[in-house]
UniProtKB/TrEMBL annotation, chains A, B:
The lineage of its organism: Bacteria, Pseudomonadati, Pseudomonadota, Alphaproteobacteria, Rhodobacterales. This is Metal-dependent carboxypeptidase. InterPro entries: Peptidase_M32_Taq. It comes from Seohaeicola saemankumensis. Broad specificity carboxypetidase that releases amino acids sequentially from the C-terminus, including neutral, aromatic, polar and basic residues. Coiled coil: none annotated. GO terms for molecular function: carboxypeptidase activity. Gene3D superfamilies: 1.10.1370.30. Belongs to the peptidase M32 family. The keyword Hydrolase applies.
Amino acid sequence: MTVAGTSNTAGAFDALMAHERTTFALGQVAGRLGWDQETMMPRGAADQRSEEMAAMESVLHARRTDPRIADWLEAVDTAALDDTGRAQLRHIRRNFDRARKLPADLAQELARLTSRAQGQWAEARAAEDVASFLPVLARIVALKREEAAALAAGGDPYDALLDDYEPGAKAADLEAMFTALRGPLVALRAACLAQPAPKGLTGLFDEAAQMQLTDKLARAFGYDFSIGRLDKAVHPFSSGSGRDVRITTRTNPVDPFNCFYSTIHEVGHACYEQGIDAAYALTPLGQGVSMGVHESQSRIYENQIGRSRAFTGWLYGQMRAAFGDFGIADEDAFYAAVNRLHNGFIRTEADEVQYNLHVLLRFDLERALIAGDLAVADLEAAWNDRFLADFGFAVDKPSHGCLQDVHWSVGLFGYFPTYSLGNVYAGCLHQAMRAALPGLDAQLAQGDTSGATGWLRETVQRHGGLYTPREVIARASGMAPSEAPLLAYLKDKFSALYAL
Amino acid sequence: MTVAGTSNTAGAFDALMAHERTTFALGQVAGRLGWDQETMMPRGAADQRSEEMAAMESVLHARRTDPRIADWLEAVDTAALDDTGRAQLRHIRRNFDRARKLPADLAQELARLTSRAQGQWAEARAAEDVASFLPVLARIVALKREEAAALAAGGDPYDALLDDYEPGAKAADLEAMFTALRGPLVALRAACLAQPAPKGLTGLFDEAAQMQLTDKLARAFGYDFSIGRLDKAVHPFSSGSGRDVRITTRTNPVDPFNCFYSTIHEVGHACYEQGIDAAYALTPLGQGVSMGVHESQSRIYENQIGRSRAFTGWLYGQMRAAFGDFGIADEDAFYAAVNRLHNGFIRTEADEVQYNLHVLLRFDLERALIAGDLAVADLEAAWNDRFLADFGFAVDKPSHGCLQDVHWSVGLFGYFPTYSLGNVYAGCLHQAMRAALPGLDAQLAQGDTSGATGWLRETVQRHGGLYTPREVIARASGMAPSEAPLLAYLKDKFSALYAL
């Protein structure tokens, strides 16, 4: 890389972009190490791998805090840039500011602590032993509070953490949105569960046949295998940007929906990355703009499209072809089975109605932890009280309660709300997409998602980081983001399903 | 990483080793990208991958030429170090000197040129079109001559290239050794081929069963799957050091020996890396000391052990169990089939007698190219003349001649001789191993290689880069490396097989 002189705008901007390009290429490499770790890495390589990851992180940190970035930023004449250039600059400036605000010692201590804590959390969860994990979690919360204070520079500490996943979002705005969701969702949940439960799946579903059908589903949703691949892993995830975006799934002989819908979900994430304008590859614009927008894509693929009456009709035929008669009489019964509510403890297994209640619980608790209003020692009781209030039955063990999610053990505070924000965004996009595509259900009934995914690619995905998260959703949906379309969609769908 | 002060020996040495450790960890990451490219990477990711690799190379180059290394090296008091520390320093000094001597522009131009040239070579080979590749090769040779001159700094240019793969080796010494090999090998080859040919394999061998047996062979030779894995790839290779050493193989329904013996060969390379003292991991001592010593391990696993009468007796039973009756009557006939000579053009398919003749041809031609004594335009004719002289029949097409190997297209000059040097080293080691392990054949006849591989681990592998290549072979075999044991072994083995 030739570093151009910084005395003129074009030179400074080119030098900045060349620097970023290399940094983003290295970021892709680090991300692929993570993919490898979950899919291919031999068990005994774990210690060496953590040294390799630390080496990559130290290189990336040095590049992200390179003092030349400040010089280049100062030398660039923003007015001389086009919209794309200004958007690049906005990301570069923000990333540089955040990277510089975080003390290197703190970042290293957090990295060390959380890399161990993930294993300690898994052990505590397996042993149903909250107490053994509390000292670790207390240390993580203390460090995250330090991090939040450093990043906030006088502003709201939780917002500073949230900003890492959802640039520009404020907890107060989310709280208002989520408060508007919570009451109606609690009521809708109770109304559905008061009705007779639809028949669910029973029996065993061959795992090889699940993998064949899940591969077909990924293709049906437009996932491009020429720049991706699908492997099995313990947890489903999507990894990578640009021209190498890989996904994973898992199979369970009694629960084929878990395989199919987690695949469709990850395909939504992956199609977002694959769909970004190729001209942005390996630059700040070349990746999904926020976790909330990312989740809007994964959730609209999974739910509004994948769990629609029209699409499940097609999927029913596919499952009959793959598995024979599995005890569900017809498409309507299958649609009810796919969207069936049941009393459950686990967020990741929740249906569309209950999912956000799980997220809102975590959002409130983690804000209290970061604000210092909730002591880690009181977390379990607070969790269990809130769960009882929203769900109407008591948590029976920690793995069904405050130990169920990995997030806090790896330091992810401010991440949970983006799940519900993504659902809210998906609600807005879905409303606009239905208006734009009157023939959508007829396509979905044939297993053809190209109309829907094409609309999402055109209105959301291709832009990458060009607009802010709220801007891209507002431009695509033609409205300021609001929870109203999501609520209306859920009430319509589940009132019909449960004859409310 | 905290950089210690350079004013005292311990601080400078520690800082140097911390720097190296991170560099070697990054080197492992870059190597694994190469593995991924050959085994897992989606086709359409190639362009992005080359940017990722270039980014890693630029990071590695900056670390390897970091001017602080010079300061640290100056501040270290060598006399205060133990043998291990001094050996580390020897490698660090050598690597730094080489990295600094190579102009960055030249390295970048070579990297760009050879990354394209590999594809151009493959196209030329497929089209049997030498002429289309000559301009590319001429440019590569010109740049490698520049590189050689820069590295040699007044010494022999070819030696400077050779030194990259075999530190301390001199072409003049190799030439003497190879000259002593060539005449007897040409004569032994002619004598064997004048005899009736043993029966070879015919029929089809199920590829899934080949993979099962090759997995068993890898385990039998001590390959540790807890820190490695075996995948299919177009070309067999071993990749990585320390606790993550991966191998690949390939299957061909008519040629199971290709799968089995290429696996055993790669297992030899991989066991060398896996067997190095864990205390050396991610340091200059933590990888095989030279390509010649590496090849000594892969070849002794493959040939002196894997193609021995005792071991092939066991393998015959395994193949009967896996494939049923495949038309070879008994262990003796199987041993003859495994070691059968035939007239062939291709180095990688050659038996133990003919293999080195292929290598010696390339060694002489590439030295002439680098010396400027042979023009690229005359390469094909020179190749074909020499082939006719040594093998007694004419090259029929370029893919059977000077276009058969990828090496020169990717700039590997000075690499070929390490194949034959490895065979020479394997001959020395085999002689000493036989003397040390009188019961070896009885073990091998049971498929038990632990005596042999344990001896190699103890005498060679565990030392990593602690000794120079010649030292480690001399210490292990109790003699100055010489071609005599290899020649004696080949004459004995093939005289018996062919009733000479």
